[in-house]
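Journal club side-thread
Mid-discussion, someone asked how the predicted structure for our own chain would compare to the paper's figures. Pasting it here so we can look after the session.
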Amino acid sequence: MDHPSSRVVTVEIHGQQYPIRSGLDPAYVAELAAYVDEKIRFASRETPAGDTLKLAVLAALNIADECFRARDDQRRHERALADRAKELERMLDLALGATQSEAVAR
């Protein structure tokens, strides 16, 4: 059964029309299709004699590579933020400890 808010959006990829049933915003679906089309065009420049399936696979591999790199970058960023937060917490603990020690000494 279809999702009540799904609709069919027709997109063009590599000169072919594809009806896509989706609950996503049609403009977003069109943007995704344009991105895939761009990747297939890039693959066709790299492999001019490639058939459509080969081009689609090459485009999918390029998109997967981008996805994996973005995921790895995100993980590195998250680790760097966690490390920085720990360092700030350590510095705060030291500062609060010094403040408490000074208050006790008075």
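Post-session note: Residues 7-105 form one domain.
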